[in-house]
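Contributing: when you submit paired examples, paste them exactly as shown. First protein:
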Amino acid sequence: MKHACRYAIVRFMPYVETGEFANVGIVLMSPTARFFGYRMLDRVRRVTAFFDELDPNIFRKARKTYLDEMLRIGTSIENAFCDASNGPSANYAKFAFSELVKPRQAIMYADAERVILTDDPAEKLADLFDHYVGRVFATKAYQEREVEKGIQRILKAAELTSLFKQQVLIGDDTYRARLPFVRLDEQGQAVRAIKPLFLAHDDPSRLYDHGWDWLGKVRKLRRDGKLTGEVMFAVRRPDEAFGARASAFADVTQDLAREDYIQVVPETDERNILTFARH
């Protein structure tokens, strides 16, 4: 028998101003199967690698608070299922789930509710968790965070982290971009920036899109006068030296380097990264 399931992705957004989030859980309910369940990411290290300089206790506390709420509401839903499959008790279960996933201002919250059909809600919960949470940490966003952490270690070892801070640069009031390493002058103007860039995508088209996207962002910020100095892209390249991915990487990095205010270096080029940072 196919059961209709209501589910939502649980997201963690510690920096509201940037709008960046990580999928950290799934909550699912099926009234016809009398099933309620959830799964939450418990590997704090994965989240702290995604959000640079995040205090691990912030995630731990938010996760505990959200789990406590799911336990409380989940218990009431399961009790309602035990009382009746129809009528007031079933209606309460639906209401309680709606309360759990309703929009709210919090660093951990449930995204928009979705519906799916399945023979086995418990199995579907596991599948959804693997798809939306397990795989997200293999995406280019997560891998780019790893590149970012490497640059952070280089700057920290050279005691240069005080010069470069994460900034959200706002263009003409309609455009903004997050840059992890920005140097400001005394007037608060962005005069130098380092952008870690993951360009080792499996799909060459995605590699092109990501590289050109950041070229467009930097051009826009400079056109609006929000980034006046030089920009260094510290890049991670594909493993192979030949083939479609290598060709795409060469095209993108050549396009970046064609701008006289942009430098492109490997993520491991500590000497040039520090020379740029100290200038």
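Second protein:
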Amino acid sequence: MSTSASAPATTYTIPPGRLGNLTPEQQHALDEFKELIKAEGIFVEERHDDHLLLRFLRARKFNIPNTHKMFLDCENWRKELKVDELRESFVFEEEEAVRECYPRYYHNVDKAGRPIYIENVGAIDIKTLFKVTDEDRMTKQHVLSYEKLIIDRMPACSKLAGHHIEQCCTIIDLKGVSLRQFANAFGFIKRTSAIAQNYYPEMMGKMFVINAPMMFTSVWGMVKPLLDEVTVKKIVILGSNYKDELKKDIAEENLPEELGGTCKCEAGCRRGDPGPWKDARYMNNPEATA
């Protein structure tokens, strides 16, 4: 399959709380927060653009003290993990072995221009996973996947869409998941989810949970009232008849055949990594090979 991507099919309106659609109070909060972190000497111009600062502000309802704490926690975590150094030096040689027992991959864009992330939770084999790698290396790889998303994937998607893209469309496939399997994987999933929530906030645009068993649907019914209304609106729980729902948001050619689409990547959709980030017209670094 070609790595080129077609432009998003939907008309774009800047959502509230983003650059170009801020209330006077939100603009004031952005300006005040930026001045605060500049005065503290923790502002990094190459990384802390207004889009990123607004993600943290939205995550804390534009409350500056709460946003400041979240931001400081993130910066301290980045220093502890040495994220910038990892980007230059970390090599995940076990990727192919890991992919076999923990299938997760990016696959083109949805109709809103967002990168599609697919995770086959029902196929996770935690015991085998931690025979071929360890939790520390998996955590580092997970973090670097987010870094690549921000540095490479999102800018390419933005160029294709013609406007800023900063969120993903996520598909979580629960096909084949068992209670025991979920229990074994729960701790790891919880830790990786915490990284997203605490250090890469406001990056989920929409999430489809497909092949959800009755047990999961019942649990979701109990958890749903406890979640923020904005978050709940982003999550769609579907059983085995999910294909038509996915196609409302994702063009058939951008959806893997195994999920009801028409894409058959030459290397297999789980390995092909198709999307604008592989197209020289949109890549940040056209000479990059991955």
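If you have annotations for the second protein, write them as plain sentences, like these:
The chain has a mean pLDDT of 92.
The domain at 102-278 is CATH 3.40.525.10 (Phosphatidylinositol Transfer Protein Sec14p).
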